[in-house]
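A student in our group prepared the protein record below, which I am reviewing. What it holds is a sequence and that sequence's fold in token form. My question to you is simply how this chain folds and whether the tokens agree. Do not assume that whoever made the record got everything right. I have pasted the whole thing underneath without changing anything:
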Amino acid sequence: MDSCTNCLAWGATRHLGWMCKGCATWCRTYTRTAACTVCGHEAVLDTGGICRLCRKQTLLTRNARHRAPTAHWQQACRTGQQLFFADLFSSRHRGAAIVAPAPLRPEPAPPPVHRQPVLCDAARTLRRRGIEGLARRADPHLAAWAEQFTREEAIRYGWSRDTTWRVRTGVNIVLGFLQTPGAALTVDDVAVLTEVNLPHGHVTAILERAGLLTCDRVPAVIAWAERQITALPPSMAGEVRAWLAMMYEGSTSPPRRHPRSETTIRLHLRWAMPALTRWAATGKTSLREITPRDIRTVLPPTGAARTQTGQGLRSIFRLLKAQRLVFTDPARQVRTGFPAPTIPMPLPVEHIRAALDSADPAQALLCALIAYHGLTPHQIQRLQLTNIRDDHLEIDSRRIPLAAPVRRRLAAYLDHRRRHWPTTANPHLFLHFRSATTHAHVGHRWINLRLGPHLTCRALRNDRLLDEALATNGDAKRLTDLFGISTRTAQRFTTTVEHPDLRDRPPGPIGHSR
């Protein structure tokens, strides 16, 4: 390494001709070499006759990026030059250049009396252009208004300077899209930030708080359902849409109903779609024409497929009957049976030991909490730091003493969490790089991915409950007291103890005997 031949910064290498990265870009922009009008150093000068070293010295003292008069350059460099290490100047570590916010929060501009329609709708993309210069196109008033919310979110969630810079830059880029008076930003405008790796989720939240975003995006489950029912007759598709609206939004008027989860909606529609498609192929145009005989015709003969199809059809007809969109509920008169209960089986011990001894602190703690204390995925997702107190786990009105192996892995994970996210304000125990900048918890998919390819949260918990049932010779009351499960769930494991493959199996090394 050596000093840069242009700005004298230490750390230049031969790869860029003994220049730092900043000077390499500088020399591509400016080509005139002469003595600097301020310091007299022989270097490549800009259009004002200033070398890059004098410019950096002035920025260091003024903390500004706009061009200053020559007298200001000379005033900043009157006591000499402060040399620096090469390639350490980055707007991410200093904060993006935006309009300085006013001391008092500026109010948004009044709504315009007219709106200019867009002549041609064109899809926006940043994949080829990048983000260079786009942040400076934002309206100064709107940028200052949104900056207040950016700062509040950064303080609230403990964002790093890099995350704050990326969010601020994304907000200003999207604000620069506003080219007509009274135009509103949409979620699709913000979605283009994913092409340049900017946090569109944080940007969306800030613009919503600032009142600058119109949420016009169709929910994913609704868009998926529309694709499924496209081929159905119009009348039948309209009835399915009415069921879909009731399932997704619920109802506060009689008959009242809570909204269902997206998973439940997808499962019920997926199970019912084969029957709906067959009825449409036979000439049925509305679900009002369906009779119990039609349902028996489309039902599979036996097995889980018959039960699932019946459950999906009952869900649709029950709601349509409650809304008086069909005359009768033909699914009530058809018995589809219940799915055969599954038999919980133990997991290979080597897979559990490999996860417990993993070098990943998150994987080791996840496996320990499930393998020793039988926590559910829902409990792990919502587990917070305040739930762990005095070597005990307080969750769901229960106080669980933590096993010694769990305490060791918990201490290792807390050190890992503190090193990676020292300023996070997320109260949950488990974090990843996205949830660390919010208050959200991790998802089921993250838990199963962390456990590894051979384990899932449900299978590992079943292994723990089965191990305890074997150790207690099928004591259902002990299972209910120890894991907080219902009597019916406990009996599922106690009856499995009599299975021929488990009758002579001793308790495993992960549960009772350890």
